[in-house]
Write a structure and sequence with these properties.
The complex is a heterotetramer, with 2 copies of chain A and 2 copies of chain B. Chain A is of the alpha/beta class. Chain A has helices spanning 3-6, 12-37, 51-60, 79-85, 89-96, 131-145, 163-172, 196-199, 224-241, 271-281, 287-309, 327-337, and strands at residues 71-73, 151-153, 181-187, 190-191, 194-195, 215-220, 245-250. Chain B folds into 2 domains: 4-191, Thiamin diphosphate (ThDP)-binding fold, Pyr/PP domains (Rossmann fold), CATH 3.40.50.970; 219-347, 3-Layer(aba) Sandwich (Rossmann fold). Chain B has helices at 4-18, 53-65, 84-96, 126-130, 143-155, 184-191, 234-248, 266-276, 291-303, 326-332, 336-348, and strands at 23-26, 46-48, 70-73, 106-111, 136-138, 160-165, 219-222, 227-231, 253-257, 260-262, 279-286, 312-316. The chains are: A alpha/beta, B alpha/beta. Chains A and C meet through α6, α7 and α12 of A and α2 and α3 of C. The structure holds thiamine diphosphate (2 copies) and magnesium ion (MG) (2 copies).
Chain lengths: 338, 351, 351, 338
C-alpha cells in the first residue's frame, strides 16, 4: 500500500472537494440509469467506478481554450473528469434526455458524449480508439506552440487491441518530434462481455509504451491518492519534458457495460466507499456530512430532470442544421439530399 | 415462432453440423454473451475476438485461405468502416489471383436504424458494400429468409456479406424454420442461454434441415398493378403497411423484397416495372450515391420508354448521422407515411 | 505553362503565405521527395509522416481542432480505404457536436487510372467519397482549376477532399497561373527541386496571387445543343476529344466539367439538360452504386418529362480492379471511343 | 562478428545452392529492371539486397498445400524466397511482361505479386501491412490442425507504423490461443524516401514483441550464415512451441524503392558480393564458378524474356473472368455492371 505516503499530500479541503465531485458524478450517472429505466432516455453508458481516477484527473486539467490549455480526447466514461472540470448535471442529463437544449449535441448523440470548445474537449464519438489517432494532432500543435498545455487522451482496455492505439504510440514518439501527450488507458478488465485476459497477452497494457521509449506507469485507479499522485507526476513530466507518458489505471466497472447489459450494480470494489472510509478515519468528513453530500446531489439531479422535462425536444427540420459550417452550404446540401 | 436472431443462430448451428463452418467469431460473439443480439449463443465454434475489426476481417480471410469456413461478425456495421480496404482485398482475391484463390467466408453485421441507436448504431451499409466488387450481399427481412439466406451464404464459395436489419433481429415471422418446434417456449428453452451463470449451459438444437433461399432471387411480397416498390430489410414491412393503406385508396402496389442486393434479381424488377410502369426504390441509406440509385439508373436505362412516371428514390436524408431523439431519427429515415406519400404520388402522377 | 503538380504546389505555397496553412504532410510529402508526384516540393510547412493513413487523417483532424490548417495527403486513394470511418468522423464532427466544432482541413489524394498503376494504383474514390456527408469534394482537370480549387479549399471552413486526377498531374494547361512566369523553364528553375542532393535547396515562389474557383460551380467546357455530357477529372479531356469528333458528324455536345462533386452544381446540369434533353454521366469509378448514378437519379426525378432519351451512365466496369496490361485497363475504364459511342447513341436515339 | 561460429553449420553444398539461388534472384530482378527501361513492363519493385535473408528463408520453408505445410503472406520483396522455393524466372518475368500466361495474376498485378495455392502462398496485394492481419487466420487453422506447419508473414520497416502490425502482435499472443507464426520485418531503413529513424522511436522494431511476451531477434540479414541460423532457430521454436516469433532482419535496398525512383543501383553493402568473398576464402567456389553462375542465370533470364515475348497478352473480355468463383455468377455480375 502506497497510500500512507501519498495521503499527506492532499489537503483536507481538496479531499472534500474530490469527494463532493465523486458523489456528484455518481449521482448524475445513477440518475441517468433511472431515466433509462423510466423510458426517458434510450441508452446509458457511463463511469460509475471511475470516479477515484477521473475526478483527480479533471481537477488537474489546465482548463481553457486554445493550445495554451489542455486538449481532451475522451471516451464515454469521462463524466468524473467533466464534472470535476465544472460540467453541470443539467447539461449531462439534457443529453440523456435528448433535449434541444443539450449543449453537447442538441439531442443527437448518446449521453456522456461531450463537445466543449471552451474547454478544448474535442467532439466525441463512440467509435472505440479513434480518439487516439486524433489526439496527436492537438499535441502536435502544442509542441509547436510551446507553453505548458498538453493533450490528454483516454480510453478502455479492450480498445487497445485496435491498431489505433499502436498508431498513437508511434506518432507520439517520432524522434525529435515527440509530443506532449498524456495517454491514458482505463483498465476495467472488460470490453462488454469479454475479459481482458482472454484477448491480451500483455502483462500491463502500459508496457507497450516501453519499446517506444515512453515513460509508463500502472496504478490502482480506485485509489484517489494514488491516482492524484500519478496524474500529478505524469502531467508534470508531459508539461515540462514535452514528451508522452502512458498511464494505465485499474478501475471497477460498477454497473456493467451499459444499459444494454442491464446497468445493474455488480460486486466490485466501490472507490467512493473506499474513499469515504478514509475520510472518516482521517476525520476529514463525518457520517452526516457524507450523507448530506449524497442527498444534495441526488436532489440536484432530480431537480435537473424536472427542469429538462420542461424543455423542448429537437424538431424534425433540425436534422439539416450543421452538416456544413455555413447555412448557404446546408441549403445546397439539402437540395441534393432531400 | 423463432425470431430473426434465433433463426440466424439455427442456420449457423446447421452450418456447423452440415456445412463445415469452423469459426463463428467477433467481438462478444462467443460465450458468455453470444453476440450483442444473441445471434451466436451456444454455437459450438463461436469465440470472442479482440476488439479489432481489422483483425476480424483479416482473420476471416486467413481462415478461408487455409480451408476453414469462417463466419465473422462486425458488432455493428457502424464499426465496419475501418475495414473497407480489407473488404476490397477480400473481394479482389479471386480476381487478382487469376482465379487461384477463392475465399468462402461470411461476414455478418447488423445494419440500419430503428433501435434508437443514435449516430453510431444506426448506419446503413448497403451503398458502400454494393460498391465493392467480388462480394455477394444479402439482407433478409424475415426469420425464415434469414435462415435460408444464411444457409445459402454458407454454401457459397464466394465472400458473402450478410446484413442483419438491426431493428428486426428480435421480431418473429409467420413461417416456421424447418425443424423448429411448434411451441416457441420450447424453442427458447432449447436454444436461448439462461440468465445468470451460463458456464455449464449447452443448447439443444432442433433437428434442423436444409433450407436455402437462393442468392440472387428476389421475392414478390405483394402483387400489384399500379406501382412497384423495390426495397429490402425492415423497409419491406413498412412498405407493406403503406401498401395496405394505399389499397384502401384503390392504389395497388407491387412490392419486391430484393433479399440479395448483389448480384440482384433484375429480372424481377424488370418484369414488375414492365407491368406497373412506375417504380419507387426504397432504402434507409443516405441519399447521395445510394444503392437504390444504381437500381434506378439501370431501370431507367433499360426501361425508359416503358415508364409512365419518373422513377423515384426514397432514402435516408443526406446528413452525417441519425440523431438520437426519435423526431430526428424519424426525420432522417423513411417512415411509413413517407413511403405512402411517394408511392401515392408515383402511382397517380398522370402518364 | 505549369503542370498540375506545380499548380497545386503553388496554391499550397500561396496558402502557407496568405491563408494560414500550418501543415502539409503525409507519406513522403516532405523533403527530400516532396510527394510521389512532386506536388509538395519545397513547401515550408511540409513534412513526412509515418506510413499510417489512419494516423494521417487523425492528425489532420487534431490539428484542425487546435486551430491549425492542415493539408494531409494520402499517397494514392487506393490506400485511403482503411480510413473511411475517420473520414466519416471528420464529416460528422460539426453535425454531431451541434455546430460546436468545425474542421477546416483539406485531404488530397491522387485518383483514377491512366498511369498503368495496376490493381492498387488505379482506384477511383468519387463514389464512396460523395457518399460521406459533411465533406466538400472537388476534382480539377486543369492546372489553373487545380490552383483555384485548392485555394478555395484552403479558404473553406469545412473539410474538403481534393482529388487529384493522377493521370493529369504532369500535364500542362493552356491558362497561366496568376503570377506564373511566362517561361516554363524559369518556373521549373524556381520551384522544381533539383536532381541529386536537395538538402540546401529552397524554392523561389513567384509572386502568386489569389485566384479562387468557387466550390460548387461547374464549368461549361463546350457549348452544345444535342446532348449533355457531365463529367470531371481526366474524362473531361476525353469527352472533349469525343465531342470534337462528333462535331464532325454534326452532333453538338454540351460538356460540363463538374469540378465540385459535392455540393455539386445542379443548376448547371439542369440548365443544360433542359436545353439538350439528353444526357450522359461519365466517370471511371465502378458501375454499381456510382456517383454518376446519383446525378442521373436526380436528373431523372426532376427532369423526367423533359428528357428525349434515356439518361445514361458511362463508368468503369464493375470488376474488382483495373488490370496492369493496357488492354485490361482500357477495357475497364471508359475510353474516348466508348464516350463517342454513348454520346452518339444518346444524341441520335429517336425522341 | 558471429560468422565464425555460424559458418560451419552450413554444408558447402548448401552454400553453393544458396549462392546459386541468390544469383538467380538477382538476375531475374535485374532483368525486370531492364524490361522496365525497355518499355516492356511499366513498374518494377523487387528485392535486390534481400537475397542473403530471403534465400535461406525460402529454403527452410516447409513447402506444400494445406495446413500441414507453411503458409506464406508476403510483401513485394519476396523474390529470393520464391526463387528458393522453386519459383521460375519465366513465371516472374511473365508477370512483369503482363502476359496472359502470368500464372500469378494473368497480367493483372504488378511484378513480384504472387498467388500460389500449391505452395500456400496467399494472394498478394501491394497494400502495405494488410498481410499481417490475414496471416493470423492461417496460423489459427494450423494451431487447431496440429502438426508442424507454420505461418510466415513478412513486410517492411516503414509499414510497421500501420496499426495492422500491432494487431498482428495482439492476435498472435492471445493467452492460451497463441499461434504458430513467424513474423518477419525486413528492415531496409527506408519507406520510399522516408528514413526509418525519422518516424520510429523504437530502438528495434522487434522490441515491440516483448511486452506481448513474444520471442524476438534482430539480425544482420545481409549475412547468409546469420540469417540461416536465426531462421532455423525461429522456425524450430515456432514449429514446436506453436507460438509466434518476431524476427527483424536488417538488409540493404540496392536499387532504391522501385522503378518510380529510378531503380538505379545505390551504394549499400551487397550481400551477394559479401557471400562470394566468403565462398572464395573458404574455397567453396572459384572465381570461374561464380562467374559461370552469373552467366548462366543471365542467359536464362534473357531466354525467358525471349520466350515470353512470343506469348499473348490478355484480352479485353478477360476482365470479366474471376470476379466470382463460378461463371454463372460472373455472367450475372457482368449484366449488372456492363
Ligand atoms: C470501433 C468500435 N468497435 C466496436 C464498438 C462496440 N463497443 C462499444 S464499447 C465496447 C467495449 C469497449 O471496451 P473497453 O475498450 O475496455 O472500454 P470500456 O467500455 O470497458 O470502458 C465495444 C466493443 C465500438 N463502439 N467501436
Ligand atoms: C497501405 C499503403 N500505403 C501506402 C502505400 C504506398 N507505398 C508503397 S511501398 C511504401 C513504402 C514501404 O516501406 P517499407 O514498409 O519499409 O517497405 P520497403 O518498401 O522498404 O521494403 C509505400 C508508402 C502502400 N502500398 N500501401
Ligand atoms: Mg474495459
Ligand atoms: Mg523499408
Amino acid at each position: 500500500m502506497q497510500k500512507s505516503t501519498l495521503r499527506p499530500r492532499l489537503e483536507p479541503a481538496l479531499q472534500v472537494r474530490i469527494h463532493d465531485l465523486m458523489v456528484k458524478t455518481r449521482c448524475v450517472e445513477e440518475r441517468m440509469i433511472k431515466m433509462n429505466r423510466d423510458g426517458e432516455g434510450f441508452f446509458w453508458i457511463g463511469a460509475p467506478g471511475e470516479e477515484a481516477f477521473g475526478v483527480p484527473l479533471g481537477l488537474q486539467v489546465k482548463k481553457g481554450q486554445g493550445p495554451d490549455f489542455d486538449y481532451l480526447h475522451l471516451h464515454y466514461r469521462s463524466s468524473p473528469l467533466i464534472m470535476a472540470m465544472g460540467g453541470t448535471m443539467l447539461d449531462s442529463l439534457r443529453q440523456m434526455g435528448m433535449r434541444a437544449t443539450d449543449r453537447y449535441s442538441a439531442g443527437r448523440n448518446f449521453t456522456n458524449h461531450y463537445a466543449i470548445p471552451e474547454w478544448n474537449v474535442a467532439p466525441m464519438a463512440p467509435t472505440i480508439e479513434t480518439q487516439y489517432l486524433i489526439a496527436p494532432g492537438t499535441a502536435w500543435v502544442q509542441r509547436r506552440h510551446g507553453g505548458d498545455g498538453i493533450t490528454i487522451v483516454n480510453g478502455g482496455d479492450a480498445g487497445t487491441a485496435e491498431g489505433d492505439f499502436a498508431s498513437c504510440l508511434i506518432w507520439s514518439t517520432r524522434p525529435g518530434k515527440e509530443i506532449p501527450m498524456l495517454i491514458i488507458v482505463v483498465n476495467n478488465k472488460f470490453g462488454i462481455s469479454t475479459s481482458h485476459g482472454t484477448q491480451h497477452g500483455v502483462r500491463n497494457i502500459a508496457d507497450r509504451g516501453i519499446p517506444h521509449g515512453m515513460q509508463t506507469k500502472v496504478i490502482n485507479g480506485n485509489d484517489v491518492f494514488e491516482s492524484w499522485a500519478a496524474i500529478d507526476e505524469a502531467m508534470r513530466y508531459v508539461r515540462t519534458e514535452r514528451r508522452p507518458f502512458l498511464l494505465e489505471a485499474h478501475v471497477s466497472r460498477l454497473n456493467g457495460h451499459s444499459s444494454s447489459s442491464g446497468a445493474n450494480r455488480v460486486d466490485e470494489l466501490d472507490c467512493i466507499l473506499e474513499f469515504e472510509k478514509q475520510l472518516l478515519a482521517d476525520k476529514i468528513r463525518t457520517e452526516a456530512e457524507i450523507k448530506a453530500t449524497w442527498e444534495r446531489w441526488r436532489d440536484e439531479a432530480n431537480a435537473c430532470v424536472k427542469q429538462l422535462r420542461t424543455e423542448p425536444f429537437p424538431e424534425a427540420s433540425d436534422i439539416w442544421k450543421w452538416t456544413f459550417h455555413n447555412d448557404a452550404d446546408n441549403t445546397l446540401a439539402k437540395a441534393g439530399g432531400d | 415462432m423463432a425470431n430473426m436472431a434465433q433463426a440466424i443462430r439455427m442456420a449457423l448451428a446447421y452450418g456447423e453440423k452440415h456445412l463445415g463452418v469452423t469459426d463463428v467469431f467477433g467481438e462478444d460473439v462467443g460465450p458468455p454473451l453470444g453476440g450483442v443480439f444473441t445471434a451466436t449463443q451456444g454455437l459450438r465454434t463461436s469465440w470472442n475476438s479482440p476488439l479489432d475489426e481489422r483483425g476480424i476481417i483479416g482473420m476471416a480471410y486467413g481462415i478461408a485461405v487455409a480451408g476453414g469456413k469462417p463466419v465473422a461478425e462486425i458488432q455493428f456495421c457502424d464499426y465496419i468502416f475501418n475495414t473497407i480496404d480489407l473488404l476490397k482485398l477480400v473481394g479482389n482475391a479471386h480476381w487478382g489471383s487469376a482465379g487461384k484463390f477463392n475465399l468462402p467466408l461470411v461476414v455478418m453485421t447488423p445494419v440500419g436504424a430503428g433501435i434508437h441507436g443514435s449516430i453510431y448504431h444506426s448506419h446503413s451499409f448497403d451503398s458502400i458494400m454494393t460498391h465493392i466488387p467480388g462480394w455477394k450481399v444479402v439482407m433478409p427481412c424475415t426469420p425464415i429468409d434469414a435462415y435460408g439466406l444464411m444457409i445459402a451464404a454458407l454454401k457459397d464459395t464466394n465472400p458473402v456479406m450478410f446484413m442483419k436489419p438491426k431493428a428486426l433481429l428480435r421480431t418473429k415471422g409467420d413461417e416456421r424454420i424447418p425443424g423448429e418446434p411448434e411451441d416457441e417456449k420450447v424453442l427458447k428453452d432449447m436454444i436461448d442461454a439462461p440468465l445468470g451463470d451460463r458456464s455449464n449451459w449447452k443448447p439443444r438444437w432442433p433437428e434442423l434441415t436444409d433450407y436455402t433461399v437462393p442468392i440472387g432471387k428476389a421475392k414478390i411480397v405483394r402483387e400489384g398493378t399500379h406501382v412497384t416498390c423495390v426495397t429490402y430489410g425492415r423497409h419491406v414491412h413498412w412498405a407493406k403497411a403503406a401498401a395496405d393503406t394505399l389499397a384502401n385508396e384503390g392504389i395497388s402496389v407491387e412490392l419486391i423484397d430484393l433479399r440479395t442486393l448483389y448480384p440482384y434479381d433484375f429480372d424481377a424488377i424488370k418484369t414488375s416495372v414492365r407491368k406497373t410502369r412506375r417504380v419507387v426504390f426504397l432504402n434507409e441509406d443516405t441519399a447521395v450515391t445510394n444503392f437504390g440509385e444504381h437500381l434506378l439508373r439501370r431501370t431507367t436505362e433499360e426501361l425508359f420508354y416503358e415508364l409512365d412516371a419518373p422513377p423515384r428514390l426514397l432514402s435516408g436524408k443526406n446528413v452525417p448521422g441519425v440523431g438520437l431523439a426519435p423526431v430526428l431519427e424519424d426525420a432522417s429515415v423513411p417512415q411509413i407515411a413517407d413511403i405512402e406519400k411517394m408511392l401515392r404520388e408515383t402511382a397517380t402522377v398522370p402518364a
